[in-house]
Specification:
The chain is α+β, with helices and mostly antiparallel strands. It contains five helices and five strands. A hairpin with a 2-residue loop joins strand 3 and strand 4. The chain is globular, with a radius of gyration of 15 Å. The termini are far apart. The structure holds FE2/S2 (inorganic) cluster (FES) (2 copies). One FE2/S2 (inorganic) cluster binds next to loops.
Length: about 150
């Protein structure tokens, strides 16, 4: 199936029942993590046409003809982090890092779709994902910081 992934037209050889998460893993894009595999934790979040989705409960076939972005495509180049990645680092918004790819893709989706979102709105949207380590304040602080950086770009 033909899917545009991180800006490149890609053909995935995935069976009809394959989830998008499994198809991306099989294609070598292993940055997304599988936690619950039931659509609860958000560790597997990627962007589908710019919208954060839980790739463990989306079929790869549903992404055919659409654009998927994963954590691998976030940084503009090998020496530069995306503002969200930079802010997560600066605000210590991760410990074990298991939830981090999902949180960062969720954050990018939020900030691109709603650049003027209030802190309360961002807090509400971030509540979709779970972190078992940091508590959520550093994550919220990082996303608010990245919002300012992205607004100035
Ligand atoms: Fe997909 Fe938890 S692994 S939501
Ligand atoms: Fe460990 Fe979030 S940093 S689960």
């Amino acid at each position: 199936m033909a899917i545009r992934i991180n800006g490149q037209d890609t053909t995935l050889a995935a069976p009809p029942h394959a989830t998008l998460a499994d198809a991306l893993h099989d294609a070598g894009l292993t940055g997304l993590h599988l936690g619950c595999e039931h659509g609860v934790c958000g560790a597997c979040t990627v962007l589908l046409d710019g919208e954060p989705v839980r790739s463990c409960i989306v079929l790869a076939a549903q992404a055919e003809g659409h654009e998927v972005r994963t954590i691998e495509g976030l940084a503009p180049d090998a020496d530069t982090l995306h503002p969200v990645q930079q802010a997560f680092s600066e605000h210590h918004a991760l410990q074990c890092g298991f939830c981090t790819p999902g949180f960062e893709m969720l954050a990018v989706g939020i900030l691109e779709r709603e650049p003027g979102a209030t802190p309360e709105r961002i807090r509400e949207l971030l509540s979709a994902n779970l972190c078992r380590c940091t508590g959520y304040k550093p994550i919220l602080a990082a996303v608010l910081s990245a919002q300012q950086v992205m607004a100035a770009q």
